[in-house]
Design a protein that fits this description.
Blueprint: E1 9-10, H1 11-16, H2 21-29, E2 33-37, E3 40-43, H3 52-63, E4 71-73, H4 75-81, E5 94-98, E6 105-106, E7 110-114, E8 122-125, E9 128-131, H5 133-143, H6 146-158, H7 164-173, H8 180-189, H9 197-208, E10 215-222, E11 225-234, E12 239-241, H10 246-252, H11 259-275, E13 279-281
Parallel strand pairs: 5-7, 12-13
Antiparallel strand pairs: 1-3, 2-3, 4-5, 6-7, 8-9, 10-11, 11-12
Helix pairs in contact: 4-5, 5-6, 5-7, 5-8, 6-8, 6-9, 7-8
Length: 282
Amino acid sequence: MSAELPRLDLRRALIADGYTDGELRKCRRVGELATLRWGAYVPASDRRLQDPAVRHELLVRATLPGLGRDAAVSHASAAVLWGLPLWKVPLKRVHLTRMQHSGGRVGRAVHLHTGQLAVDEMAEVGGVVVTSPARTVVDLARTVSFESAVVTADAALHDGLVDAAGLAAAMARAAGSRGCPAARRVIAFANGRSESVGESRSRVALSRAGVPAPTPQWEVWCGRTLLGRCDFGWPERSAVGEFDGEVKYGRLLRPGQDPGKVVFEEKIREDALRAQGLNVVR
C-alpha cells in the first residue's frame, strides 16, 4: 500500500465539520473535489489520482467504512494493496470476499464474492484485512485472463510474497471452485525469475507461438567475466532474447546518466554476446 496517500474526505465527516451538501456540490461542480464514490471525495488537483493503483487504494478506503467486519479485500483489490502489478484488470470496483455460501453480487462500486477464508488466508496491510498473497494470486488466476494472472503470479513469486509450495497449497484449497482448471495452468506456468510485466507477457507470447520455454535471467560468461544476464536464454540453441521497452531502459538509467549512453552500453553488451556465437533476438 502506498506510504502516503492523498487526503480522503468522507461526507459524514465533512458535514460534522460544518459543511453543507450544497457547499460540497459546489466544490465538485467547480472542480475542487473529485468524487471517488458517493460520499467520498479527494482534492481534484492531486496528481496521484492519475495513478490507477493509488486511486483504487483510495476507493478501497472509501468503501470499507460502510461494510461489516466479516469481509476481506480480495482479488484485484488485494493485489493492489500488496503492491502487485496488474495487467488489463479493471479497477472500477472494490473486490471483497465475505465468508458465506451465497449472496455474491456485482454493484456499481463493489464486487462481492463469497467463499470460505481460513485464518491463514487473511492478513493485514496498512490496517486493512486482505486475502493472503497466495489466496489473492489463486483468486485472480481463477477469474482473469491467463496473461493477466501470470503477470501478477510472477511478481508475487519474484517479490517473495509467495513460494511454489504456498501457491500449491492455496490451489489445493480452491479445488472445486469455478475457474480452477485455468488457475492450475497459471500456477504451473508462473516463474519468479521474471522481473517485469513485459518479461511475463513475453513468456506468455513465446509459449503461444510454440517457442520452447526459455531460461529466464540466463547468465552468459566468458571465462570469469560475466558478459550479461539476458531476459531469456536457450542455451541448447545458442540464442538469447531480450524484452525491450521504455520501462526497462528507465530501470537501467542511473541518476544523471544520459539515456543515449544506456542504449550505447546495451549495444556494446549485445556485440559481446554475439561474439560468443549467440543469436540475440529483441
